[in-house]
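Hi everyone, sorry if this is the wrong subforum. Our group has a chain we'd like a structural model of before ordering constructs, and none of us has done structure prediction before. Sequence below.
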Amino acid sequence: MIYEIRTYYTIPGKLPELNKRFADITIDLFKKHGLQVVGFWTEDVGENNKLIYMLRFNDMDHRDQAWQSFRADPNREKAFAETEKYGPLVARITNRILKPTPYSPLP
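Answer:
Right subforum, don't worry. Here is the predicted structure as tokens:
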């Protein structure tokens, strides 16, 4: 099992719109394409322009195939374009791939 942590740094003022897109569109697309959500977070203290989430994959091949399928989905492209008709929501994205240690309570 591997985990991916992704951080989306939003355009100022766009975090509510990004959260809406994830809630209304992205979650269903993730399920459709085998992207297994562990959780989503925002910060109460610190920067208030970030959405952080974690995904779980069986291995790197699973990750690569799931992301490739997600990105190629024409419904995703159309829906995301609609949510950004007044400009982009995200300024930049960072991600990290994590592998649990043998003593981690996560699988």
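For your construct planning: The two ends are 6 Å apart (CA to CA). The CA atoms of residues 39 and 98 lie 15 Å apart.
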